[in-house]
Fold these 2 entries.
Entry 1:
Amino acid sequence: MPINIPQELPAREILEKENIFVMDVGRARSQDIRPLNILILNLMPEKEKTEAQLLRLLGNTPLQVNVSFLHTATHESKNVSKSHLEQFYTTFEEVKEKRIDGMIITGAPIELMEFEEVNYWEELTEIMDWAKTNVTSLLHICWGAQAALYHHFDIGKFKLPKKCSGIYSHTVNEPTVKLLRGFDDMFYAPHSRYTDVEKAKIEAHEDLLLLASSDEAGAFIIMSKDERHVMITGHLEYEAHTLAEEYARDLAKSLDIDMPKNYFPDNNPTKKPVNKWRSHAHLLFSNWLNYYVYQETPFEWD
């Protein structure tokens, strides 16, 4: 998928070096097709890293996509420059009159806080309510998935005894669902969180489907039966080295943290981790864009 992003966005150089098809505005305007409009609410602190991770996955199908970034107005980001936000991001006030084809709500390292304690929770719930009538399909990641389950489906989270961090094996529970077309019966995916949601509550909910799960890491891919919400409790967008960086960061903070499971070769943190989830990450994003955004969104919203 050629993704249409600003020429100056730092992630652009990273993606071009990886041979990801990035389209400039002039070429995009010359094509007689209607591009998809994808809005990313980026709640992660290191926004530039998350931008590259998500754009990498959005750039791998034949569809043309216009990507916009959204940040919360009620929270001041400390790990990204103000100029970066002013140049590449917008706020909800600036987009709430628009119709959006697809939206991604990322995770955030705040899962130990109660939802209502988060200083932008009211703004986030307003955005999620707006999306019910203004967005065709939503993809929620990690804490973003927990927030969606809580707000839309009244399923809360609980604290884990230890941080769930590592690469875990997952089983496909609903092989005929379009989102999982092409998936192996078992596949790997990264997790990195301190909280979880009860698998039994998801399975018992009349409006939800548990598409894939792990014996160790619990529920993984959840979808609403109206197919408008996809919730992923892990991080398929992570790069091979992301968990290693998080582990080093936690050790530097003297946190009581275990080594990520099934991650470092021979459990040796000096050895380079192997990416065992990249193909399924691309497949999930491609399936979501095709079957739940492109095939469902109207050519003319009006």
Entry 2:
Amino acid sequence: MRLSFVLSEIFSGLRRNLSMVVSVILVTFVSLSFVGAAGLLQAQVTQMKGYWFDKVQVAVYLCNSTSVSANCPVGADGAATPVSESQRTAVEDALKSDEMKSYVAMYEYESPEEAYKHFQEQFGNSSMADLVKPDQLPASFRIKLVDPEKYQVINERFSTMPGVDQVADQRQYLDKVFQLINVASIVAVIIAAVMIVCAVLLVATTIRLSAFTRRRETGIMRLVGASKSVIQLPFVLEGVIAAAIGAILASGVLWAVLQFVVTDRLAAENPQVAFIDPTEMFWVAPLLILIGVLLAGLSSLLTLRRYLKV
């Protein structure tokens, strides 16, 4: 009897305040979509770091005629002196040394001819391909580190060696990408916070109007001895149901984006990039529903304490 009464009151309240309930669903949907997007963006950053940081290398570029480093002295013709064979051998011997064994997982030498070939493969469809000549690209050692965070050790060891133009950590280019994703996450969180405040206020307004329109019914219930929880429960569940629907819609849209945009399109077109997949929604969706239910429930309870005297 009590359960059927509570259910009838819930559906009655939802029907009477349908427009407000739809508004709560939409605002909750938008706000939790931004919350979920922020979480997924952070998951993408973590995924890319774990994938790319194992693959990035430190490049030790050797002197050529276009170098400007102090390690590359200028000859009589005004051009830098290219690295000599003995200098190149000294760098390679240092990489093989016992001192570097705990830092260097592997390395490979790339000659200027190989560097030019790789450049043409990468920029063959660009006008840049015609502007670069083979002698403008330096020879280099590509080093894979045991721990990518130990770049500074390699930099200190090789940057001052004769014949070395510069030591470059390829992670710095990835860090720029990660920073952009982090900025997008922060923006999503800020928008989500504003929208969540709007959702909370809208839930409170909806519950307040519902309580006002049914004040005669609640008065009769008080007179016949209905408990506080029985009177308040339908109002609370109205807000919770609306917020839960919004959270489910947000989860569905985010899953669709991951499946049809990220997995089916971006991942297929960019197999070299480690994208997150729709399985991430297994932890995002329950979290969004929990956030929506908690916000709606707390907002409803606080509103009822002020406007519904039981």
